[in-house]
Design brief:
Chain lengths: ~1000, ~425
């Protein structure tokens, strides 16, 4: 057997090698002694470069030697790159294995965030053991971490990047595998992308739904923000199976927070009326948990539950009693009425658990109900013999407590109860009775404990913490059977903890010699091309394949060098992706990434693509560093005018970006990321480095004594922005506040600009860009005038929305009430977030509100009705094309690279003669930025001004270049944009602005 | 990985078993029967059951329980997804997946299971590959096989398995080249008592039936791809093209397949095609109740609403109903307590109405909750989200195919609370 496997493992046909891999676990189960030899075969097969084999061999690896993580090192990058083309079942196995691998090899990406958030985080998510563990870990590493910010290993990034497209797989198991990989490995800000895919899976078969919900329940405890936008997808239908209902309920409860609790409670109210009694019981429990977690609604919940006590169904009542008991324990003083009410219920309720709960409650708080308690005991003593064990125990308990507090009335009763208990059938009860009698009834001898009896029985008991049963489940790898059962199953591999210090990353380096022979390599799945040729000779039917690949490669219109790079480059990468993406590769043909990374890769360098992967990542880091340098450089006193304007541009940029970044950090969901391309997420520096930048800023600023005033403004600005974000929830209701404040900030800065030349152009652009448009004329609006402008502030959490600032002025002599938006008539794809209703606008008063509109990258008008308490006005907002974008910060190199990709049809250029006024580039910058919401790209030459932005909805880049030709007095304007319509319109607008 | 598979019908008979490793006694299914009894409703059987030595992962499909036995750690979704794939393959082969069909074709079923799983690990699950390995049954072939005693299993290894497009078999030939795409959208919604939408979203799928000669390379583009919020694709779709250009570029499998499924985000306003006016009440005394339901069109985009069915799960105490429907037929099943009102096409002029009284079990307390209505409907030639296919291009082959796109909107989990 062994021989056969060995031979098959070196067979030329990948299919044979695949079956050899399948044979390995079979042989292993028959004869475990052969393990060492089998590992050799596995090692050999792991080095195989075909997608066909990869899945099977990793499966064999997992079955035979999952502990031999060292075998993976050399194949790690290859596996990552092949992943997308492996068959679905193999993908699942590989992803699960790589999750474990990454846990042993890379550093925790969230380590710095834990540091930053420390206390706040903990309070927010409740006491989390894991967090504590992390903090302990932090305590050890923190000195190091503070000095050196976390830099993600390029291999770690590679894994995350290459698995992300698999979230779109049709196979639920693959999606789940990627989701757990992101949950366990990704930085907090990036985990959000998986939520959408998981919510999609919930539409699938009920079994899939069941498993996914189990995992979502665990995730939602740790990362609540991730699923909050999808709250409604967890609403329960009466037709759902009970087990699904209960799980959804669990998720809803985990998602409950101060902001959404009212909606959730309203939902719960409908659930309580359900016919499915198990589900109702679970709902009552859920309400109890919401009440303990969110203080504000505790009383509301309690009242609701008390009402349920009069429900006809005994189960419902019993469940409510149990929950109320837990809630009352938190603040018993105020609720003696409820306790009395419950005491009355003892006559009716028969469910033992509920009876026991009531008795415990009365015993515990007998001082609050001094009259009723002995009476209850009297009744109970009568029925003692017929009660369930659990109730009997509580009766004894009650008796003991009453004896201690009110022995005059209850002495005899207690004696009677204890006597009954003494002869009970249950030994537990007999024991308890004996114990209590010794304890509370004073004896002549002994009784040493009896003086402590009061302390023992009436000690203050801590209120119970109602917890999710899914808490702490995340120490199991999500998606695994063990996680589902909450118990370790046979063959489960523990998910290791992050290492404190990353092991040597160089073990994953593959030597060039090894790369080369393969790099001349494979066509598609067929393995070595030398093999292929032989195969082709034999299997005539296969000739179709290369033919096809040729014809599909015709798709690469720009790529004339079809054949050569095709055969020479595709090593290490997911070369075989001709099937999946050969046609799509707009970059340079040589990069067949298999991931969404191509946009950020440097083009070219065919043969050593593995290296280039790495390079590009280190390049990222470099770029970050560069950025930092830029910021630092900016802090130095400006030498020339142009440097000043450049700086202010950057500064402006920072101001605009900061709120967004902070939010993405605190919300832990990065919506924009899921939609927009990778390049965008790259443009947002990671929060750690951001923090670092801030730090450096602060450090470098005091070095410049002349800029003292400015330093304070910078700090003030930062602080206030942070504050704003602290209380900026996802609902739009508070957003206006944010906006007004940030506007006032702008004016603050404007005032300062008089003293500080550096700030001047930035503030001017911001101010001048606030061009007011008329929405409703005061004649037509019967005294109500509305103007609007595009504030260019980010709108709420939705990155696609363009913030439109509306300014209402009431010119009449009476109040205008209930101003609101009604019946928006939007073109398809457009969305609108109305401003909160304005209750009253006093005569000659004015008010500013903000609404968000997603124009979905078109200049179509958004039509809607503006209603007052008396009239309705039809109004419409049409955005100038320049407002459909937001600034993107990029370096000159990036700009040129992106521009190179947008040539041909996507490039529009125009020449014009500038008037005398417009000669210096300061004016040009100002005019361009007023016409379009783009940001300046710092560049060396003062003849050229570059600007970059991207469209709000689709995130396509908009690049603007203005080149001045001083000798001719002309200006060359170039716009590169993937969307030609936008490009054309933008050229027109900018020309107009420049010609003014 | 997957150890064994048992197929169990609703009468709790094990009618097929298959073991990939060693034989596991049927008695392991007793744990399953126990859980099934406890759950009552087949939907409520927990998908994963723990037994002392094994774990049972099961799915319920087409009135058959597929129970798989596993021994070691394996992602449960992996098994569930595979079992569904088995059911789909059977359906694909025999047109339906039912006990009688499986019993009739028991040989082919075993052959299929043998190919799909090797030592518990999935081997060939792509229907195109399987069909080359094991020919689907036809009358002629089964006749020949009976006479000659040969089997269905192909002699050669399917070439597709080795190619870059494992989902497509080589050498496909058709005289009529055609490609049809069905855009099917389902509205999932919860409407509350007052008619306000509690939540609504649209789930869509594009099912394709492609019968094209050779190796065509298709490109399908949408008028408004931005609508699609979240998508999942058949493996044939080139993900990068979608990322960059929002077009579906793919070499299709042969025959029927699901090209993509998508989700239209809940933030977009979802047009709810109909409204329901309902009034269901139970009287405290006299053990009776009243029911009055009217259905009317709301946002139908000018298309007729067809196949309208309202079904209501009545509370247990409802013994019988006496109702009159102004249109369609109504039926009450006193055992399952389900009232089904089959309206058919929605008449815009005269709105369909169902009215009458319910009689309750005497002496029983009146039900606290009104039952919610589940609605089923169909609108032809309309994708309610507004998704539209703009064009389909074919590269790589010379002939001109016949192309067609069909839109259907259906109600998914559409529920009206009362």
């Amino acid at each position: 057997m062994m021989l056969a496997i060995k031979e098959a493992a070196s067979d030329m046909s990948p299919y044979v090698r695949k079956t050899a891999a399948h044979a390995i676990p079979k042989l292993y189960s028959l004869d475990p002694e052969q393990k060492d030899q089998l590992i050799e075969v596995i090692e050999k097969l792991l080095a195989d470069k075909t997608t066909l084999v990869a899945g099977s061999v990793v499966m064999a690896f997992e079955e035979v030697c999952p502990e031999r993580i060292d075998l993976i090192h050399k194949n790690y990058r290859k596996l990552c790159n092949l992943l997308i083309d492996v068959e679905e079942w193999g993908q699942v196995v590989i992803i699960n294995m790589l999750t474990r691998y990454a846990r042993t090899q890379f550093l925790n990406p969230n380590i710095n965030e834990c540091l930053l958030e420390e206390g706040g985080e903990k309070a927010f998510y409740g006491s989390d053991e894991d967090d504590e563990a992390k903090e302990e870990e932090n305590a050890e590493v923190s000195p190091m971490a503070k000095r050196k910010p976390y830099v993600m290993d390029p291999d770690h990034r590679l894994l995350l990047r290459n698995t992300k497209p698999l979230l779109q797989s049709r196979n639920a198991a693959v999606v789940m595998a990627v989701a757990q990989l992101y949950f366990h490995l990704a930085p907090k800000a990036e985990v959000g992308v998986i939520a959408k895919a998981l919510v999609r899976l919930m539409r699938s078969h009920s079994e899939v739904q069941y498993v996914v919900l189990q995992n979502v329940a665990t995730m939602s405890i740790k990362r609540r923000g991730m699923f909050e936008p999808y709250l409604k997808s967890f609403y329960i239908r009466s037709t759902d199976p009970t087990q699904i209902k209960v799980l959804k309920l669990e998720v809803l409860t985990n998602l409950a927070s101060e902001t959404n609790i009212s909606t959730i409670l309203r939902e719960f109210q409908t659930y309580i009326k359900s016919m499915d009694k198990d589900f109702v019981a679970a709902t009552i429990q859920a309400i109890g948990r919401c009440a303990t977690n969110i203080g504000e609604v505790r009383d509301t919940c309690l009242n609701g539950l008390v009402q349920l006590l009069s429900n006809r169904d005994e189960l419902v009542v019993a469940e409510s009693v149990v929950v109320i008991k837990k809630l009352l324990q938190m603040q018993p003083e105020q609720h003696s009425e409820i306790i009395k009410h419950m005491a009355k219920l003892t006559d009716n309720i028969q469910v033992p658990m509920a009876r026991a709960s009531i008795l415990w409650l009365i015993g515990e708080y007998c001082e609050h109900v001094p009259k009723i308690a002995p009476d209850v005991l009297r009744k109970m003593a009568k029925t003692f013999t017929n009660e369930e064990d659990i109730v009997k125990l509580q009766i004894i308990n009650l008796a003991a407590k009453l004896y201690l507090t009110n022995s005059k009335q209850t002495k005899l009763l207690t004696q009677y109860v204890l006597n009954l208990a003494k002869y009970d059938q249950n030994y537990d009860i007999r024991d308890r009775a004996r114990f209590i009698r010794q304890l509370i009834v004073p004896m002549e001898k002994g009784g040493a404990l009896s003086k402590y009896a009061k302390k023992l029985f009436l000690a203050l008991k801590p209120a119970p913490v109602l917890e999710s049963p899914f808490k702490d489940r995340d120490h199991f790898q999500l998606g695994s059977l063990s996680h589902l059962l909450n118990a370790k199953t046979g063959g489960y591999q523990e998910l290791p903890d992050w290492p404190d210090v990353a092991p040597d990353p160089s073990v994953r380096n593959v030597e060039l010699e090894e790369v080369f022979p393969t790099s001349e390599g494979r066509i598609g799945l067929l393995g070595d091309w030398r093999e292929v040729i032989k195969l082709l000779e034999r299997v005539t039917t296969l000739t179709r394949v290369p033919e096809w690949t040729k014809c599909s490669s015709r798709d690469k219109r720009k790529d004339k060098k079809v054949e050569k790079p095709f055969y020479s480059d595709s090593d290490g990468e997911s070369g075989p992706t001709e099937s999946a993406d050969s046609g799509s590769d707009s970059a340079s043909g040589s990069e067949s990434g298999g991931s969404s990374s191509s946009s950020e890769e440097e083009s070219g360098s065919g043969s050593e693509s593995e290296e280039s992967e790495e390079e590009s990542d280190s390049e990222e880091e470099e770029q970050k560093k560069k950025r930092k340098k830029i910021v630092q450089r900016k802090m130095k006193p400006p030498a020339s005018e142009s440097a000043a304007s450049e700086e202010s541009c950057g500064e402006d940029q920072k101001i605009l970006q900061k709120p967004k970044e902070i939010r993405s950090e605190s919300d832990e969901e990065d919506e924009s990321q899921s939609e927009s391309s990778e390049s965008e997420s790259e443009s947002e520096p990671e929060s750690e480095s951001e923090a670092e930048v801030k730090k450096k800023k602060k450090v470098s600023v005091p070095n410049l004594p002349s800029k003292q005033t400015r330093k304070t403004t910078v700090e003030k600005k930062e602080m206030s922005l942070l504050d704003l974000d602290d209380f900026e929830p996802t609902t739009s209701q508070v957003t206006p506040v944010n906006n007004v404040l940030s506007n006032s900030l702008v004016t603050d800065l404007e005032g300062l600009s008089l003293t500080d030349t550096m700030m001047s152009s930035a503030t001017v652009t911001t101010a001048s860009s606030l061009k007011m448009y008329e929405l409703l004329h005061r004649i037509k609006g019967e005294g109500l005038a509305v103007e609007y402008c595009f504030s260019r502030q980010p709108f709420g959490s939705d990155s696609h929305m363009i913030a439109v600032q509306l300014h209402f002025t009431n010119n009449t002599t009476s109040e205008v009430k209930a101003l609101r938006v009604e019946e928006p008539k939007l073109q398809s794809g457009m969305r609108m977030k109305e401003f909160p209703e304005i209750d009253v606008l006093p005569p000659s008063g004015s008010v500013t509100v903000v609404m968000g509109i997603d124009f979905s990258d078109s200049t179509q008008t958004a039509n809607f009705q503006l209603c007052t308490h008396t009239r309705k006005f039809f109004v419409s907002i049409q955005p100038p094309v320049g407002e459909l974008m937001m600034p993107v910060f990029m370096t000159e190199n990036e700009f040129k690279k992106e521009q190179g990709k947008l040539m041909g049809m996507n490039e529009l250029s125009e020449k014009l003669v500038l008037g005398a006024m417009c000669q210096n580039d300061h004016t040009i910058v100002q005019r361009v930025t007023s016409a379009a919401n783009v940001s300046r790209v710092p560049c060396g030459s003062d003849k050229e001004c570059r600007f970059a932005g991207k469209t709000m909805t689709s995130g396509s880049l908009v690049l603007v270049t203005v080149v001045t030709k001083a000798d001719e007095g002309t200006v060359q304007l170039t716009v590169n944009c993937e969307k030609m319509v936008i490009g054309t319109m933008l050229v027109k607008d900018i020309l107009q602005a420049l010609n003014q | 990985m997957i150890h064994s598979l048992f197929l169990i019908n609703s009468a709790a008979d094990i009618f097929l078993e298959k073991h990939w490793k060693s034989v596991i006694s049927r008695s392991v299914c007793d744990y399953f029967f126990e859980a099934q009894e406890k759950a009552g409703d087949p939907d409520n059987v927990p998908p994963v059951i723990r037994t002392p030595h094994h774990y049972l992962i099961n799915i319920y499909r087409d009135k058959i329980f597929f129970v798989s036995v596993i021994q070691t750690e394996v992602p449960p979704l992996f098994v569930i997804e595979f079992l569904h794939r088995v059911a789909e393959t059977l359906q694909d082969y025999f047109g339906e997946c039912s006990e009688s069909v499986i019993k009739d074709n028991v040989v082919i079923v075993y052959e299929l299971l043998e190919e799909m799983l090797d030592n518990g690990f999935p081997l060939a699950t792509e229907s195109n590959i399987l069909k080359e390995l094991i020919k689907p049954p036809t009358i002629l072939r089964s006749m020949v096989n009976t006479i000659t005693g040969s089997s269905n299993v192909g002699e050669t290894l399917p070439t597709g398995q080795l190619s870059t497009v494992p989902w497509r078999r080589a050498g496909v030939k058709y005289t009529n080249n055609e490609a049809y795409f069905d855009v099917i959208e389902e509205i999932d919604a919860i409407i509350d008592k007052s008619g306000a939408t509690v939540c609504a979203e649209i789930q869509g799928v594009i099912d394709a039936c492609v019968k094209l000669t050779g190796m065509p390379d298709l490109t399908l583009s949408f008028m408004n791809p931005r609508l699609l919020d979240d998508v999942s694709f058949h493996p044939c779709v080139r993900f990068k093209r979608w990322e960059s250009e929002r077009v579906l570029s793919f070499i299709p499998p042969d025959g029927n397949f699901r090209l993509m499924s998508y989700h239209v985000s809940a933030q977009n306003l979802v047009a709810i095609p109909i409204y329901v006016k309902q009034n269901i009440s139970f009287f405290e005394s006299g053990s009776s109740g009243r029911l009055d339901i009217t259905v009317g069109p709301k946002q139908t985009m000018g298309k007729p609403v067809e196949g309208l069915v309202v079904s209501i799960h009545m509370p247990k105490v409802v013994l019988s109903v006496s109702l009159t429907a102004s249109q369609g037929t109504q039926k009450y099943d006193a055992v399952t307590k389900v009232l089904v009102w089959d309206i058919g096409k929605l008449n815009q002029q005269k709105l369909p109405n169902l009215k009458g009284s319910l009689s309750l079990q005497s002496g029983a307390p009146k039900p606290e909750e009104n039952p919610s209505l589940n609605i089923d409907l169909k609108i032809q030639q309309l994708a309610i989200s507004g998704v539209k296919v703009s064009r389909l291009d074919m590269y790589g082959e010379k002939y001109k195919p016949f192309k067609g796109v069909k839109y259907i909107t259906k109600a998914g989990k559409f529920q009206v609370r009362t």
